[in-house]
Amino acid sequence: MSRAVVLFIILASLTASVIAEVHVISVGQDNKNQFVPNTVNAAKGDVVAFNFVGGQHDVVQASSYGNCSKMANGFESGLNPSSNWYNYTVDKSSGRIWFFCNVFIHCKNFNMTGGIIITSNAPAAHLDDSRVLFKPKNSRDEFFVYADPDMVQQWRKDKTVPLVNVVQCFEIFETYNGGKDGIIGHPSKQKLENAFGTSDNQEVIQQIIQEGVVHNAHKGHERPTLKDHKAVMNESRGRGATTN
Ligand SMILES: *[C@@H]1O[C@H](CO)[C@@H](O)[C@H](O)[C@H]1NC(C)=O
Ligand SMILES: *[C@@H]1O[C@H](CO)[C@@H](O)[C@H](O)[C@H]1NC(C)=O
Ligand SMILES: *[C@@H]1O[C@H](CO)[C@@H](O)[C@H](O)[C@H]1NC(C)=O
Ligand SMILES: *[C@@H]1O[C@H](CO)[C@@H](O)[C@H](O)[C@H]1NC(C)=O
């Protein structure tokens, strides 16, 4: 086989392995002014499928979290799209995309807003296993966030460094069984309340970064398997798990 043919086969198989995922968000679920879930993790090329299930709504892109004004050149579904679906394909490879319902006072008065956290196509490969670990006193629980060790040091000195530049993803994890079997997941709100006095993700992440112990990648930690990452990237569990 010629080198070009081999290269073609390698490239073709690489492309085939990146499969776009569909992330469904219910708009107006239970006839309430809400997006469920209001936050999803999605990679470039993935589809965020807004399913209009109740009430009168639309989905409009905003420039920042909680902003109730349409962003210039942002996307817009129109009122209750005829098929009951508005499917948005993620066209960026990093950052955040914010949206809201632009009908009546749904955004201003009911906080009908949400966001897309753009992740890599290959979470396990992308998430460098550098963590900040936090063990509450008198507890067997262990919580951590994936973060950039250098940025952690910068943030500790200068709190104006944006948190999104410090963490690799805006989520809190816990290890089960003292971390012995390498299984990780998302802690419940109750567990966070008990350990941190709050279940607000942003506040908990700040406490972990401030007080936790930094573990660099490839030191003392096995990289979690892709299966673990699929589990922790479970959106229905990670719901509400953001927003800066
Ligand atoms: C809200 O979004 C509009 C439109 O993109 C922008 O002009 C405005 O500055 C934003 N407001 C805030 C507080 O970010
Ligand atoms: C949008 O995506 C959903 C879920 O995959 C699918 O059922 C629906 O047919 C799609 N609608 C359009 C208009 O593409
Ligand atoms: C919307 O958010 C504001 C500010 O966080 C809060 O005061 C208010 O209670 C929220 N409203 C609803 C309906 O959740
Ligand atoms: C995600 O979490 C929910 C609730 O814990 C569970 O019912 C569902 O099976 C999980 N999905 C995956 C793909 O793990």
Automatic annotation (TrEMBL):
Database matches in Pfam families: SBDS_N (PF01172)
- Alphabetized InterPro entries for the sequence: Cupredoxin, Ribosome_mat_SBDS_N_sf, SDO1/SBDS_N, Ser-rich/MCO-related
Domain Ribosome maturation protein SDO1/SBDS N-terminal as annotated: residue spans: 131-219
Which stretches are annotated as coiled coil?
none
- What domain of life? Eukaryota
Annotated region (Disordered), positions in chain: 216-244
Instruction: Name the residue ranges with Basic and acidic residues bias.
Output: 222-238
Q: Respond yes or no to whether keyword Signal is given for this record.
A: yes
* This protein's UniProt keywords: Signal
Q: Which residues form the signal peptide?
A: 1-20
Q: Does the keyword Signal apply?
A: yes
What name goes with this protein?
Answer: 11145_t:CDS:1
* Organism, as annotated: Dentiscutata erythropus
